[in-house]
């Protein structure tokens, strides 16, 4: 066996130019059979673009791809699948009107492999695939009701059942819980045993060190140095390679909030969808963490509070007086209660609009002159300032948000929440898909907000994140509040406590 | 050369370039084209096209369609006719009542679309029949022709011997719509609801209210168009609006409005109306059989997409090569 | 069968309304269910259903097709002209008519694909091609109908197989084929997937080009057949065939429960939707409703039906 | 291929008619015509050929107007003026017609004979054109009065529908039920036709007007409506009166069925399909008007008006151009009938005008 044949996939001098940006600039690396190859880099570095090129979504401007030592033109996705390249893209790509089995066995449909649909065989195949990723769902179920975590697992199940030789996973664990992520990593390891090569993208560096054999770092569309073996690196060094400078994590000290007034109080709130009553208190200037596994009911609870799902029982007090919020508009305009959704594509952004218009719509009051006319100068100023402080990577503020990288889209959602000067803010999964560096920036921003007296609820499935910034953590499970803990800022002890309250 | 390139890239180029081309060709090939009679006639047709186009545009901006533009026009003009002819109201009051009627019809449509949960397309379809039917039942098909003479004269009034008075109304309405869409909160909210309704709600926009207002404005614009049409015809005609539906889509689309919602172009719509009228004029002046009118309009529409595609491609290429040069 | 599931479906509530309408009509008009009337109803129903199914396929793929009527007219006029002027045999003319459907479908499909593919693009493009097709038809015919259609051709429309009019049978077979396509073939599932989420579908190997092209070809074939059915029914091929198909083509599938945004179809629901439209038209004549009232009643009935359907689904 | 061939045919049809000979010097046609020595040949002093560019514009594409351009060109040849143009909007839409009219005038057309797409709304356009010096003669149907058009050459729509219904009732043996079939109910002409049908039926005690169905001037809608009414009230129906094109064609087809041999029907217009229906016995007859004569006389009138003739103030605005009841007997001689009647009118046509001052 010659040395060349060892590589199952070789990328040579890949360059990709989009109108206005050079997303990839002369990137090359090679992947051996049966290895887990991690791609890391900041938001907008070009990782997803690379995945798209390998999987045939679009072609490279320059450069070539070799599969099994043979140069291939991967002009469309089907071609990639034929070559044995399976993929889970960064964004969810399920067919809402299809049931689970059809979604999982989607490749059979799209390739027209089995001409007449054999429902039974398909169900069995789907069940096997779900078993592999630890999903316990019925194959004939619809998918519209599933939580984003479940949907993510479905996508992975779909990629698994493609029998691919190369599997591309673009941030597969961004929106799933720890247990699910563990399951996934286990599956990845098992696939590796079976000889499947995997390209793995994640901003969670712990995972990378857990499974990756080799690591390629991408910064501003270029690969930084050669591919490195995972064992030769540690976390700090990796971050330094990614960011281009030394990275310091800030720590936020515990504060004494006992004298602060309670600004938001929920007493036994429940809704039709979610009948278990729940209560909590939020103090002025406090950062309250809501921890829970995917599907624990945090998002739903938040929706009740902000008036989107009607409350059937219980009462909500803002600054001590009982309020009844009929719509989010009311919560937003009247009580300065602001919510940033975890679902940026559907609930956060106007993808066809440019960045500044996306920010402007939520800040109408700030950008209007006295006569009620919109000042685009003000709108652009505000947007520019957030582009700066959140280091949003875009040519300018007039590019369509659809063309931004996932992480940068998330940053715009955060900017939208920040620019309205709320009194209470609920941020749902603020750092999903955000690189380490910016994650720190966002934490800092949240902390600064709380210092200014704004109360923040951070919903997160990332224990480390909550331990880092929260003053208090509420733990959710199965639509119930299972416990409430003061944050000791010590990850080890906190996670044992939290796990304890979840298990109870 | 660079200038031309820049012009080709401007947002409005896909409507301005055809206008200039057709205008130039007509001026060269057809001696009657620049006559004051013809110019006046062209300008006289523009207002209805533009305002009906705007009425559709505002609903398109919400990502919906208003199939009932014509019917709203008829029923509003019937209200106008009743007010003026049967009740002897002064012109201004009659106009006001007609506009109120239009707004009301739009309002009903908006409320049904947002609150009933019935498929918006079907609602619009049903209201199309319902409004027209109501107009027929009220009038038994009879036109109103005893209108205020001054009002009828207005529709055919010449200013500076060239411009019909109505074109100024259209310009005014377009101006107001431009400001509304671009510089008022409402405009931003409309576009937000059209681009992504859920995200709009999460941005603190009252979705239902915005959609209802959008439909109401659309209804009001239909009424204005109907009144202008009445003043041109000198009578309230039950067939007013029968031919509006296609126009209402073609005009804003020629002008660069995105049918999926979220992006509109008021100036483009104005120019789109002008382009439509020019095309129609060219067909007659060039002696193309009117059997071919339809084919020509269709081809021009296809051509407009092609120009738009070319423009985008050119912009992309240029942006790409700019990146390459930088490197 | 699962009765609870049926009861919850949109088709169930539309069926209730249809039964209700028929009962009311029978109450007012003894002879409402006469053989004559049923056959009159069925003949119209056949065309309306076919037109609805044609549109449903476009809707399923996330698009819209406003050129159905002109494609139907194109097939009708051209096949009619061939039979009248060149004495082309009936069967061959029908095949050519279908071929014209294919051709129009290809033109539509290519242009839609070129202009971007889904919803917006398809509406705009077919708006334009519709104008072009109509223009061509009027240029060919100069507005005159083709009146000397061979009897053999017209006979297909008036003949019956057993008690069932042939046209109904043809439509029955076609709609069943469409049902099978959507339920059992990859193409059908691909169209639905593309309609529900074009981006995801494309990322996972469904060809945008092939899907759009096949959708438009199939839809146009159905439209062409519908156009020829009209000729069989009317006895002449008039250039105005299909001029009022646009609205009913949308109304029939949407009333029948097809998802407007694409991705979900209720194939046999189209029949119910078409039946609703046909019965309204028929009942207005039966009841001798004053000409000025017909439009109004039309609108009101459609709203009432949809409101009823809505109320039921809320209760469920 | 068929498509291309068809397109060619269509285009040829268009060019043929517009480029037909405009020999102004050949006087033979003039010498044989009734206009010899009454109306001057060719351009009169001070005017040029260009001042005699006339056009016809119908209310919509309709088989009614088929003979018009031919008739107008015969008149043009006889009088030594340019061949005429002819155009019509696709549908009965006044705005579209206005576009055509304005375009023609911009192009240099100096006189127009026309039928308004809408009788009321078209009037304002007529005023606009006449005030810019273009004489207008209306044909086919009258615009609402008062109108700025010089005169209208038409059959009174009310009268035609009335006569048609009377003919039907006579064919029915003055007893039985009648169904009326009409076009767009928003058209005032349709409204007077409906009144005429009602009035005619009311005059006969044994005749009952069962129903008038409107808004069905479309090929499919008309068939559906007729089938529906036959199914609903077939036993009461003895006759149909159709006042528009498509229902007439539909009647010709549906009533050819044996079962309906007892049902009488009168159509309108003289389209091939309708005439075939008469020959086959499905229809009793059709009410034909005189489009040939209308266009012929209108063109002559335009020439006269340009020459300086004026329409006498005491003459009626609406000039009856005749209407004919076409039955099996004269179905083959429709155009001939029209031409004969026209020539009869032509003999005294100039009497309606004041001659130009010499
Ligand atoms: N379709 C597109 N059109 C224009 N620019 C694009 C397009 N897709 C990506 N880009 C740009 O290419 C760059 C790289 O984006 P990419 O999505 O590959 O980043 P990423 O490394 O995956 O980041 P993240 O971690 O945030 O997902 C970004 O600047 C982005 O704005
Ligand atoms: N497999 C499932 N099928 C149907 N419904 C589910 C499923 N899993 C969760 N849900 C519903 O979703 C609710 C919780 O969803 P929610 O999005 O509020 O949770 P979350 O804690 O915010 O989790 P996530 O991290 O996914 O946002 C559950 O109460 C349940 O009703
Ligand atoms: Mg990415
Ligand atoms: Mg959540």
From TrEMBL, chain A:
Domain ABC transporter: 9-245, 252-503
Keyword line: ATP-binding, Cell membrane, Membrane, Nucleotide-binding, Repeat, Translocase, Transport
Record localization: Cell membrane
Domain of life: Bacteria
Keyword Electron transport applies: no
GO cellular component terms given for this protein: plasma membrane
Keyword DNA repair among UniProt keywords: no
Any GO molecular function: ATP hydrolysis activity
Membrane topology: Peripheral membrane protein
Main location: membrane
InterPro entries listed in its UniProt record: AAA+_ATPase, ABC_carbohydrate_import_ATPase, ABC_transporter-like_ATP-bd, ABC_transporter-like_CS, P-loop_NTPase
Designated name of the protein: Monosaccharide ABC transporter ATP-binding protein (CUT2 family)
UniProtKB/TrEMBL annotation, chain B:
Family matches, as CDD domains: TM_PBP1_transp_AraH_like
Pfam families, per database record: BPD_transp_2 (PF02653)
GO molecular function: transmembrane transporter activity
Transmembrane residue ranges: 12-30, 42-60, 67-87, 93-114, 121-139, 159-181, 188-205, 211-228, 249-277, 283-305
Cited InterPro entries: ABC_transp_permease (IPR001851)
Protein's membrane topology: Multi-pass membrane protein
Localization (cell): Cell membrane
Keywords associated with the record: Cell inner membrane, Cell membrane, Membrane, Transmembrane, Transmembrane helix, Transport
Gene Ontology CC terms, in alphabetical order: plasma membrane
Main location: membrane
Oligomer and partners: The complex is composed of two ATP-binding proteins (LsrA), two transmembrane proteins (LsrC and LsrD) and a solute-binding protein (LsrB).
Functional summary from the UniProt entry: Part of the ABC transporter complex LsrABCD involved in autoinducer 2 (AI-2) import. Probably responsible for the translocation of the substrate across the membrane.
Name used for this protein in its record: Autoinducer 2 import system permease protein LsrC
Organism in which the protein naturally occurs: Lachnotalea glycerini
Lineage: Bacteria, Bacillati, Bacillota, Clostridia, Lachnospirales
UniProtKB/TrEMBL annotation, chain C:
Record keyword Zinc present: no
Name of a matching Pfam family: BPD_transp_2
Top-level lineage group: Bacteria
Keywords: Cell membrane, Membrane, Transmembrane, Transmembrane helix
InterPro entries associated with the record: ABC_transp_permease (IPR001851)
Keyword Plastid annotated: no
Primary site of residence: membrane
Membrane topology recorded in Swiss-Prot or TrEMBL: Multi-pass membrane protein
GO cellular component, one term: plasma membrane
Cellular localisation: Cell membrane
GO molecular function, one term: transmembrane transporter activity
Membrane-spanning residues: 12-28, 40-60, 66-83, 90-113, 119-140, 161-182, 212-231, 265-285, 291-308
Protein name per UniProt: Ribose transport system permease protein
Organism: Lachnotalea glycerini
